Amino acid sequence: MVRARRAGRSALALIVALGLLGPPAARGWPTVAVRAAVVAWSPSALVVSEVQTGGASASDEFVEIANQGLAPVDLTGLEVVYATSTGSTVTRKGTWASSQMLDPGRRTLIVNGAGIYAGIGDVAYTGGFAATGGAVALRVVGGPVVDAVGWGDATNGFVEGLVAAAPPAGSSLERRPGGPAGNGLDTNDNATDFVVSGTPGPQGLSAPPVPGSPTPTPTPTVVPTPTPTAVPTPTAVPSTTPTPTPLPTPTAVPSPTPTAAPTAMPTPTPTASPTPTPTASPSPAPTPVPTPTATPTPTAITTIAGARGLPDDTTVTIEGVLTTALGALESGRTAFVQDDTAGIALYLDAPVVDPLVAGTRIRATGTLDTRYAQRTLRIDEADLVFLGQPGVPRAAETATGSATEALEGTRIVLHGTVVGAADDLADGVAVSIDDGSGPARIIVGPTALGASALVAGSVVSAVGPLGQRDSSGTGATGYRTYVTLAGDLQVAPPPTPTSTPAATPSPAPTATPSPTAHATPTPPPTGTPAPTASPTASWSATPTPTPSAGPTNDPIASVRSRAIGTVVSVRGVVTAEPGRLGTPPLLAIGDGSGGIVVRLPEGRPSPSRGTVLVVRGPLADPYGQLEMRPSVDGLATAGSGPLPTAVAAAAGLDESTEGRLVVLTGELTAKPAKATSGDISMTVAGSAGLDVRVYADASSGLGVGSFVVGARYRLTGIAGQRATHKGALDGYRLWLRDAADVVLLAAPAPRPTATPRPTATPRPTGAPRPTATPRATGGPVAVTTIARALAITDRDVAIEATVTAGASLLDASGRRIVVQDATAAVEVLLPKDTAAPGIGTRLRVAGRIGSAYGAPRLRAEDVERLGSGATPAPLTVTGALTDGQVWRLVTIHGRIDDVKKLGDRWRAEVVVGSQHVLVTGQPGAGIPVTSVIEGRDVRLIGIVRRAFPSSTDRRPTLLPRSAADIDLGGPTGGGTGNGAATGSGTSAGSTAASSGSGGATGGGTVAGSGATAPDAPDVDLAELATVEGDVVRVGGLVTELTADGFRVDDGTAIGRIVLAGDATERLGLIEPDDAINVIGRVTRLDDGQLGVLVTDPSSVRLGSDPTADGASTGAASGDPALAAASAAAPGASLAVDPLAAGLGADLGGLPGAGAGLASLLGIGVLSILVTVLRRRQTRALLAARVSARIAAFAGEPPPPGPSESADRDRVPGVAADGTAGPDGAERGVSVGHAR
Questions:
Q1: For residue 404, which of 603, 227, 205, 212 has the smallest C-alpha distance?
Q2: How far is CA 1001 from CA 863, 938, 975, 991, in A?
Q3: Where are the domains of the chain?
Q4: Domain 46-197, CATH homologous superfamily name and number
Q5: pTM of the predicted structure, to 2 decimals
Q6: Cα 194–Cα 196–Cα 198 angle in degrees, nearest 5
Q7: Homologous superfamily of 304-492 in CATH?
Q8: Which of 323-332, 659-668, 677-686, 1105-1114 has the lowest mean pLDDT?
Q9: E strand spans, 107-208
């Protein structure tokens, strides 16, 4: 029986996207050498092997996923999605939240639950596929694609090369070669890889591998083993060699086998003749003899996962760590060992003589066997080699119902309630536990059991290797977890004793009023404590003993799938006390199956962590987070118990982790942000390259100073959610509870590597090539393609690519560029002080792959110019943009439908085919809004950028790099053709609507600054509490986008701005690191915190807006530079003199940027001085940004920024020159990297 353990989640990206994404020829499956089409992912061993889009019924559909590689793969963290033909809609059809191993050659089947294949599917979905065209993709949840197929008229970003033909009803698309030959062809061209099959053959987990076990035959070095037998030890073989003459004579040519006949002839041959010849013959004979010294082959180490797939009686050598003591089971003869791939049982030929403790690393050589359906390696103790003591490997969190074949041999942890009575076995006490997903057997040895009692109703956490002893003959039963080590068993006594006294009085129905307790005779004294349990009885329909025993309290995992509003009852341990999850007072509880958030009823005291609660109440899901909302008498305490083991969040946070206690390992890449409430927030780049938002309530005692940028941490907390909109599976975050949840694993590493740069600078040769100096940071890294590099997040990578977007496009830091090769594209964050290369420069870049706002980023440590090269040809897109095109250079052709402007950023909707494509004109591109006119035909080239994670509009956007990327044609349906504003569009850049040349057209709104915003007093964000209910003006830097607005840092605090009503049209025009000011009403928002509510769109101003209130144009003011800029950009109004912008009371028409200027006059108290200094720096920053924008319009270099002395008190992430500083280019990382 083939078995494999689940692979570690933390290695998911590496296993799927690196180890298995090799070229087809590297695998043991039939391949064809065909040119690979250019897509953003590499050929994979984990493939979409067959798809059917309909049969007699449209619901007769399935998707088959196959492992065509040489190693088992864990599907945890992957999903299968379906995209419509244009890609406008992408829906999930299946995912694996818990471990699901897929062995080599095996398949898993995802089926339409309403079709004929529902009975044989492994995963079911609702909704269907379009037979005329669409695509199915296997990818990391919300992340990189592993494999995909598109058919029919599909044009979405999941299509590999040319689309496959649309299969007719009742037929399927099958990956070649197909049938019993398997599905190993993957050239990344769907038309080449797939063929229409008239006889679909869906296969799931229960089907045998196809082709049947291809790897075992080549892998077993059985070939050398026969060779010794093939060399007949009788030295008659050499004696045959002298008699070649007789061989031709008997015409034994037809077949070599007649050599058996000549064997008789050599015997009579004179022994003298052989005697001389043997001297020559033995010399050839020894040569074969050393060749069979392939006997060292057994010393080649086989992974345990590989060994488990080999036939019985195969001799293998493995290395791994003992998860039990050697000889801990079966009277000193059985143990378990585990490596990074799987686990297996060891069976000694005799009872152990010299026991080894668990946690010992060993090398073992033995013979594979299957004992009672358990995969076993039979060994001799003398053949064991001691390799050290690294410690016992971490146990995999597992639901009781999932402790089956896929995990056999692996160390797991189970949580559940004891069901039934205990049995005494030779290896310990055996009981069954259940967390609601199905019972699992555990056998607890005397060392682990200690003084604990395993009685029905006890809540148990058990850790140990999963074994099997199947006596049914089916091979599918008898799984049990062997708990042998001290501390691997935790038992919480059943709560029955506390409630039983309360149930004995017959007046249980009237148990709610405490007087009924006096109705009983003398027992009331003992019953007086019972009122603490009486709330439990008050809402239990049955006698109290029943709920306390657990049947009416469902496992938390099961209630999470019930409808909102359903009243449920659960029992769990408090994992986070009220207040740790923000406001209102929420707490979290968990059991072995899952976790859930509970809103503490008003008037109830706060339970402490570790308290066991019985909760009954309705389900709610505010902002997507599932909560229970019990009444005062719907929550009762039932003692205390151990906290559930934290779940690893290697693949990020999602619905499967929400409410649970989780552990996240990752790097903090920017300084945390602090809100006015004292709460802090940050973004941690997890081990799988995914950004995870992390929060800490002020009550946790954690502050900004608790964390170091660049350090690597292990963080423990509660997974929560605040979705961007109803039904959205986003907004997940980790809530830290206190300082104990933060463990520093490694100090900042990248910073020291920068120190070698000066050593290289003094070289005279280094001067003309400053970008090459970073090469001093370390040894060479092998160059790989961008597509492969994107899958490697645990070590440095090196790529060679061409710059497609310069350093001014994405922000003002001058450090962010985009590069592309033939396989994919990526954003690169250049090292500080590195000269930015221009478009078309060919670079060699080495560094570490991470992510920025969900999009890939290469943080460069070493940049070398390789000369100039041809800019990659843009990919032609004829429909919607997709996440698969992120950072690539693309071109579209369509009609401009709508244009909006805010400051010097504009946003347009372009109709391409039947889809709307979002186009954004970035300030750094220097493209005036007059370049895009509504109703006109346009051909655009640009870089595709992924939507910000918190944006309500989830579409990627196209960023043209300069005016040369826009080719404006004539009107396609009206318009004047002369650039005039012909419709009702208004240009808020002036006080009147523009009509004629240079305006917006159609009905679009160019939302600049022309409308007069209401006047309001300037207020610091730290002082909002003093002006609650008033209309005020605030300003600062945008630190984070939210679903309904953004957060702003003004140097005194970070505050939340909410846009409502007409002001929501500004949402798509605001980005992190924008200098902004708003006018709105200070109000208490839905989360209980104070914020500023803005409803008037004219009350939102960018600091870069060159047309602020009261500003006169350069022509009007007599400034020749500004007048020239005004003439160069007709229709664009320009602001004040850039030098005056930093000195005027209102910063040159930037209202709100000088908020609180009067406080400077009150210098004298140290605390006030600190605040003033920070705010002066913020004003300087805003002024510098305005100056830079105006100078850009006028074609002049911006004036110098504030003096270096100001840098000591600068706003985090902002350099002294008024641009985003060394951490400013990355400040978005604290919210997911700035983009």
A1: 205
A2: 45, 14, 7, 17
A3: 46-197, 304-492, 558-643, 646-748, 782-862, 873-969, 1024-1102
A4: Lamin Tail domain (2.60.40.1260)
A5: 0.36
A6: 145
A7: Nucleic acid-binding proteins (2.40.50.140)
A8: 1105-1114
A9: 107-112, 123-125, 133-140, 145-152, 172-175, 194-197
